[in-house]
Amino acid sequence: MSRLHLHILGSGSKGNCALVEGPQGLIMIDNGLSRRETLKRMAELGLSADDVAALVITHEHGDHIKGLDVWCKHWHGPLFTSRDTLSCKENLAHLPVEEFDPGDTLPIAGIQVQTYSTSHDVINPVGYRFNALDDSIGFATDTGELSSKAIGTLKDCRVLALESNHDVTMLREGPYPRFLQERILSAKGHLSNNQAAEAARELVTDRTEQLIAMHISQDNNRPSLTVKSYANALDASLDDELGSSATRLQGPRKLSIRPASQYQPTTIQ
Q1: Tens of pLDDT along the chain (269 residues)?
Q2: Are 80 and 100 in contact (CB under 8 A)?
Q3: Spatial strand order in the sheet of 159-163
C-alpha cells in the first residue's frame, strides 16, 4: 500500500460509519449502522470485518453509535473515545474503552491519529486527522464551527472529508420547527454549505486531491448544492450540469469535489 484510503459506508442522519485503510488494516470511524448493514456495505467495497484493527468515535449521538453494542459483541479490537463520551450511555458502560483528551495523538495500526475538539451539543466531541505513508486524511463532521486548532489540524490533507450539512435558506423555509433550526444553526450544531466552503478556502492546498461533502441533510440540502458551494469557493468547474461533482486543475494535480452518500458506500483513493 502506497497511500491511505477512505471508505465511507454512510454519512448522514440515518447512520454514520467510515473506515480509513492503512498499512496495518482498517480504522473504523463511528458505528451508526446496524451490524448487518455495516457488513453488507463493507462487502460491497471488498472489505472484511476481520481487518478492522480499531474503532474511534467522534461523539455519542445515536446516528454515530447505535450499532456499537452489537458490533462489539462480535469484534474485540480497541475502542477509542474522548474522555467521558460514553459515560452517559448506560447500555454501553460495559464496553472496554481507551479514553483520550482532544489534542492527543494516538498511534493506531501504523497510523498517527491526531485528535481535535469539534463544537457540537454533546459531552466531548472530536474530529480526526490520519497520517501515514507520507499521506493524510482529514475528517470533520457534526460541528457548528471549526476552531483555529481544528483548522490547523485539518489543513493540507490529501483527502478532506468535511461536513456540509445544510443550506440555510432551505432550512429556514423547510419543515423543521424553529427550535431545531436554531440548534442546527448554532455554534454547537452543524456546518452550513457556506461555512464549509469558507473553511475549505483555508484547508485546501495544492496537496489536496479529494474534497468530500459529508453529513448532507436530506431535508435541508441537496448534494449538488454542496458541490456548487465548494466549487464557487475554490474556483472549480462543475463536471456536469447537475453539479454531481466538480474539478479544479492545479498544476500537475487536480482537486476532485464530490458528495458522500447516506446509502451508497464509496471508496476514496
Answers
A1: 789 999 999 999 999 999 999 999 999 999 999 999 999 999 999 999 999 999 999 999 999 999 999 999 999 999 999 999 998 888 888 899 999 999 999 999 999 999 999 999 999 999 999 999 999 999 999 999 999 999 999 999 999 999 999 999 999 999 999 999 999 999 999 999 999 999 999 999 999 999 999 999 999 999 999 999 999 999 999 999 999 999 999 778 899 999 999 999 999 99
A2: yes
A3: 105-108, 111-117, 126-132, 135-140, 159-163, 210-214, 253-259, 246-250, 237-238
3-state secondary structure 43-62: HHCCCCHHHEEEEECCCCCH
Q: Which of 75, 70, 37, 73 is nearest to 55 (CA)?
A: 75
| Complete edge-to-edge strand list for the sheet that includes strand 17-22 | 98-100, 79-82, 52-56, 25-29, 17-22, 5-10, 266-268
Sequence-ordered list of residues with C-beta below 8 angstroms from that of 23, at least 6 positions apart, any chain: 1, 109, 110, 111, 132, 133
Instruction: Specify whether the CB–CB gap between 58 and 125 falls below 8 A.
Output: yes
